[in-house]
């Protein structure tokens, strides 16, 4: 009888790293994170500077092409993206196959995956030009697909893209506009939306990006790979945390209830966690949360609204950051902690929060996918395992068991 465990000894060096806490799966020149210092750079540029001075289209160009664009390059890129915003008309019938109360992330997985059945002229992944067309299509069509998922859920007619608007402005109009009326984009909300997209654009080898890379490593259809990323992002430990964080803040309600929830988060017999807190890589303040917190104030001022949940969130942060448990475990607010408060003020239901994350992260996914396919050393991703089942044994006929 062969002892399968002994076989591992024959295969030389073998590491076991559940959750990939200390294993790099690839080389990448896109994004750098220093988790101890709370630093996030895209192609060398700090996220704070990009959020303050850049636009999502500019950051998308940067991630895809390696350098910031000149004015001419940016105009051409924006024009190219705007040319791809329409969806094949037949795709709109897909939505009708879903229940109206379906979670929009379920609709996103289905519709984005279905793109693979339509755009056959951008699926030869050995051709860099076709890869770029697939990337542009995905970046351009995500706002249309996401807005249609929202429209379908509220029973309103779909709106076609209006390509003289900005990327964020077009998305806001397709989501909140109605066909019979002019929709005026609020410039402050448009700017906030664009900034939220920048903050979510890429974050190196997180679970959904690793999923896109793994799916893509087999040579799979690019649209199907992005659908796989969307599925992974949906989980509450990842992109689904923005929805979960606002639901948690609503449950907590007023600041006087915070100590009860802090106690629950520390209690190991209770599965409750503070949503929007903690990160695998950041052991310091997530720099995206800093920008997000500032953006909440700007949106409130522009819309002349306030939300008591923001006060609850600020107080919760203050209490947690002074608590021994959170200090010792280095748990800080992450990008998802404040994003829900802004998105809710803009008018999005919580179920759309992760959809917005997917929309913005699409640029990171396609840039990472392109980088991987262009790498001459690229191999199919094939993690190993430590087998813990029985050693080899003989089949026993059913009557003798
Ligand atoms: N509340 C309470 N305790 C926490 C939290 C939290 N939010 N996050 C981590 N901890 C504790 C764990 O219980 C664990 O304690 P232990 O060492 O006593 O067992 C310790 O901190 C380490 O946590 P792990 O789960 O092992 O850390 P990991 O790196 O695997 O997880 C994660 C990171 C998933 C983000 C985690 O912090 C979490 O669940 N946070 C809440 C969900 C969330 O906000 N997700 C969004 C992440 S950012 C993004 O995807 C955009």
From TrEMBL:
<dbReference type="InterPro" id="IPR036969">
    <property type="entry name" value="Citrate_synthase_sf"/>
</dbReference>
<feature type="transmembrane region" description="Helical">
    <location>
        <begin position="337"/>
        <end position="360"/>
    </location>
</feature>
<dbReference type="InterPro" id="IPR024176">
    <property type="entry name" value="Citrate_synthase_bac-typ"/>
</dbReference>
<dbReference type="Pfam" id="PF00285">
    <property type="entry name" value="Citrate_synt"/>
</dbReference>
<dbReference type="InterPro" id="IPR016142">
    <property type="entry name" value="Citrate_synth-like_lrg_a-sub"/>
</dbReference>
<comment type="pathway">
    <text>Carbohydrate metabolism; tricarboxylic acid cycle; isocitrate from oxaloacetate: step 1/2.</text>
</comment>
<keyword id="KW-0812">Transmembrane</keyword>
<keyword id="KW-1133">Transmembrane helix</keyword>
<comment type="similarity">
    <text>Belongs to the citrate synthase family.</text>
</comment>
<keyword id="KW-0012">Acyltransferase</keyword>
<keyword id="KW-0472">Membrane</keyword>
<dbReference type="InterPro" id="IPR002020">
    <property type="entry name" value="Citrate_synthase"/>
</dbReference>
<protein>
    <recommendedName>
        <fullName>Citrate synthase</fullName>
    </recommendedName>
</protein>
<keyword id="KW-0816">Tricarboxylic acid cycle</keyword>
<dbReference type="InterPro" id="IPR019810">
    <property type="entry name" value="Citrate_synthase_AS"/>
</dbReference>
<dbReference type="GO" id="GO:0036440">
    <property type="term" value="F:citrate synthase activity"/>
</dbReference>
<keyword id="KW-0808">Transferase</keyword>
<dbReference type="InterPro" id="IPR010953">
    <property type="entry name" value="Citrate_synthase_typ-I"/>
</dbReference>
<dbReference type="InterPro" id="IPR016143">
    <property type="entry name" value="Citrate_synth-like_sm_a-sub"/>
</dbReference>
């Amino acid at each position: 009888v062969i002892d399968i465990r002994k076989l591992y000894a024959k295969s030389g060096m073998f590491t076991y790293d559940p959750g990939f806490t200390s294993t790099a799966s690839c080389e990448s020149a896109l994004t750098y994170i220093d988790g101890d210092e709370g630093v996030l750079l895209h192609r060398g540029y700090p996220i704070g500077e990009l959020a303050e001075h850049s636009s999502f289209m500019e950051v998308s160009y940067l991630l895809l092409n390696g350098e910031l664009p000149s004015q001419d390059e940016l105009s051409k890129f924006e024009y190219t993206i705007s040319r791809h915003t329409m969806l094949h008309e037949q795709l709109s019938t897909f939505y009708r196959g879903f229940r109206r109360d379906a979670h929009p992330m379920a609709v996103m997985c289905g519709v984005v995956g279905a793109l693979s059945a339509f755009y056959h002229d951008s699926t030869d992944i050995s051709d860099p030009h076709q890869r770029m067309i697939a990337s542009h299509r995905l970046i351009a069509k995500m706002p249309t697909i996401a807005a249609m998922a929202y429209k379908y859920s509220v029973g309103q007619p779909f709106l076609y893209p209006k390509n003289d608007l900005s990327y964020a402005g077009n998305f806001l109009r397709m989501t909140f506009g109605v066909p019979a009326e002019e929709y005026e984009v609020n410039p402050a909300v448009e700017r906030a939306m664009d900034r939220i997209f920048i903050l979510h654009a890429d974050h190196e080898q997180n679970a959904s990006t690793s999923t896109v890379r793994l799916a893509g490593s087999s040579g799979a259809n690019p649209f199907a790979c992005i659908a796989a990323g969307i599925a992974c992002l949906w989980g509450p430990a990842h992109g689904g945390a923005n929805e979960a964080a606002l639901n948690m803040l609503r449950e907590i309600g007023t600041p006087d209830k915070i100590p009860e929830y802090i106690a629950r988060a520390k209690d190991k017999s209770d599965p409750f966690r503070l949503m929007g807190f903690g990160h695998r890589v950041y052991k310091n303040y997530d720099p995206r949360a800093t920008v997000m917190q500032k953006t909440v104030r700007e949106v409130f001022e522009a819309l002349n609204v306030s939300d008591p949940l923001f006060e609850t969130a600020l107080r919760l942060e203050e209490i947690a950051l002074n608590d021994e448990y959170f200090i010792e475990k280095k748990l800080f607010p992450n990008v998802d902690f404040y994003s829900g408060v802004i998105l809710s003020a803009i008018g999005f239901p919580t179920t759309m929060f992760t959809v917005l994350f997917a929309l913005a992260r699409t640029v990171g996914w396609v840039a990472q996918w392109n980088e991987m396919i262009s790498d001459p050393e690229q191999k199919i991703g094939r993690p190993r395992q430590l087998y813990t089942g029985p050693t080899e044994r003989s089949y026993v006929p059913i009557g003798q068991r």
